[in-house]
Design brief:
Elements (H helix, E strand, L loop, with lengths): L19 H4 L7 H21 L2 H9 L9 H16 L6 H7 L2 H15 L9 H15 L1 H9 L5
Helix pairs in contact: 2-3, 2-4, 3-4, 5-7, 6-7, 6-8, 7-8
């Protein structure tokens, strides 16, 4: 039986097919600029963590997060920075930290939690830490946060 028909992209023949580029605006920064921005944020986050300012560090990482297809290095570095914050936060502090974040920051955090869960064995990502944060974030932000994170096309 010939299964080559499955390799044909039938969407190329459909005039009404939506492309990912039509669904959202791409990150306006070029890949080098996005990577430099994330490196600067990572340095600022280390300073905030040294001072014990977890909310400030999370806000830095979550605001203006890189998204889109051409900024993979920046997205990975931003995820590493975020995971270092999550790992250094005590479980008893998580609800207060999450409450201090804006709704947009909570949604972006949820996207990063799902991205981290989708990368088993990647770096120092701990499933129990991510699930703990997911639980506390869902308690504070509700299930709407999950829906917004899953339906937003701007993948972090």
């Amino acid at each position: 039986m010939d299964v080559n028909f499955r390799k044909i992209d039938i969407d190329q023949y459909d005039e009404d097919a939506l492309l990912d580029t039509e669904l959202y605006e791409a990150d306006p920064r070029d890949p080098v600029q996005a990577l430099n921005d994330v490196k600067q944020k990572a340095a600022a986050v280390r300073g905030s963590l040294a001072k014990g300012d977890i909310v400030g560090a999370l806000t830095l990482v979550l605001e203006d997060a890189p998204y889109g297809p051409n900024v993979e290095d920046a997205k990975n570095l931003n995820l590493q920075t975020l995971v270092s914050i999550l790992n250094s936060t005590k479980a008893t502090e998580i609800p207060a930290v999450v409450k201090a974040l804006s709704t947009d920051a909570q949604d972006t955090l949820m996207k990063y939690l799902y991205k981290g869960m989708g990368l088993p064995g990647w770096g120092d990502v701990s499933g129990s830490v991510l699930l703990g944060w997911h639980e506390k974030l869902t308690e504070v932000a509700g299930t709407g946060c999950i829906v917004r994170a899953m339906t937003d096309r701007r993948i972090v």
